[in-house]
Design goal:
- The structure is a homodimer.
- Chain A is mainly alpha-helical.
- Chain A is built from eleven helices and no strands.
- The longest helix of chain A has 25 residues.
- The N terminus of chain A is likely disordered.
- The structure holds a DNA duplex.
DNA sequence: ATTCAGATTAACCAACTGGTCAAAATTAAA
DNA sequence: TTTAATTTTGACCAGTTGGTTAATCTGAAT
């Protein structure tokens, strides 16, 4: 068999998955290299053999996860659909995605907030200005019909995104107020219900908006 | 002069303020007792003299901040106003509050998420069921007119709360997409603008809602 | 079978971190 | 001024943590 070049990609993958788990659960400061090694079923020295430092390992994981999240958010808005259809599709797909990755929002938001330096590497790649212009120009008529000016786009986009992300980020706070939300199935059902609720809410708001 | 009883309350206060700062900035795992002592202008031993352990100090800070946040959220909904007026008042006051405490949302949400044990102490105090019933019964007519059933209340309340909290929690992510948001004044202006945007958005959605 | 680069490990280390302790300083009362 | 309690400090300690090193193992090519 041919060797997978430098580094055994199987081991590298085990490490990456373990690191993703631990960082997502505990955050950078709370994560322990020993625990990552344990979960990957390897020695701590081997961990450092594949990823020299904790920072390097973290950045590798962080960048992959951040891109994963942003791709999900932006991909839909590139499609050739009406704005209304896009919102519906976005909520459906993004909530599905987050049900499978429930810790992702809090992990990303917190790490970006606690250590803003992590954003330096990705800033160029995540160009919102382009997306906003694209969206606004593509849907100029529809949006103007709703009384949305270009300058309203940031408020609108953040409102839409928060509809799916916020409940996951705030899940524990929600569970404190509504104990039944500790049950995974009930929380997921709540998010399934939210697909429709949020879509209706947004459409109604847009249609009826003060101009 | 009379002694302030056991413990010098001035020193205690300095410690508490320093701890609040450091915990808010770095989170529990990232905070260092040495840094808290430094910022309070005291010795690390004295820190442990006032608060025996890091956990105790953290819980003291956490509980105060959590209560501060919840009081702001719930107080307004107890008042004797129409639901519509309450939403407007809530957005105005809560956004004002968060502009003065911009790190609070991320701190609370993250700590609750990373270490759910912190919630045990406050669970009883933060009874949402009571609040929800109170609100729904107080505004039954108005809400039914909007097509909101009692079972819709969780979705609605979370949507309203996220309008003010989410942009603060997601500030760094927002700033990655819209670099001008790094500027405090521009971000605060954005949140001032949001008071009106969110209120209009919610009212319009309610008025025009599918039933 | 030998070789040799790459993969894996056990043992180790220096720096950091939360926490302790005994002594010193401060304060208010006697 | 003396006394006794409280407050503050410098020095110290044990456990943890990220990271290193030298030795060993593995497996494919010679």
């Amino acid at each position: 068999m041919v060797k997978a070049s430098v580094n055994n990609s199987h081991t590298r993958d085990k490490i990456f998955k373990a690191a993703t788990q631990v960082f997502e659960e505990k955050g950078f400061a709370g994560a322990r290299m020993q625990e990552i090694a344990d979960r990957a079923g390897i020695n701590k020295a081997l961990l450092h053999y594949y990823f020299r430092t904790k920072d390097q390992l973290f950045m590798a994981v962080f960048q992959v996860l951040l891109r994963k999240m942003f791709e999900k958010i932006t991909a839909i808005f590139q499609a050739d659909l009406s704005f209304r259809e896009k919102i519906k599709l976005f909520l459906d797909q993004h909530i599905d995605f987050l049900i499978k990755n429930p810790n992702l929002p809090m992990f990303l938001l917190n790490e970006m907030s606690v250590n803003p330096a992590v954003n330096d590497g990705v800033r160029e790649r995540l160009n919102y200005g382009g997306l906003r212009d694209l969206i606004y120009e593509k849907h100029a008529k529809e949006l103007k019909g709703y009384g949305i000016r270009k300058s309203d786009m940031p408020q609108l986009m953040i409102t839409i995104i928060s509809m799916s992300i916020f409940p996951f980020a705030a899940r524990e706070m929600i569970a404190v107020m509504m104990p039944q939300m500790h049950d995974n199935r009930k929380f997921n059902a709540f998010m399934e219900e939210r697909k429709g609720f949020a879509a209706d809410f947004i459409f109604s708001a847009l249609k009826h908006r003060k101009k």
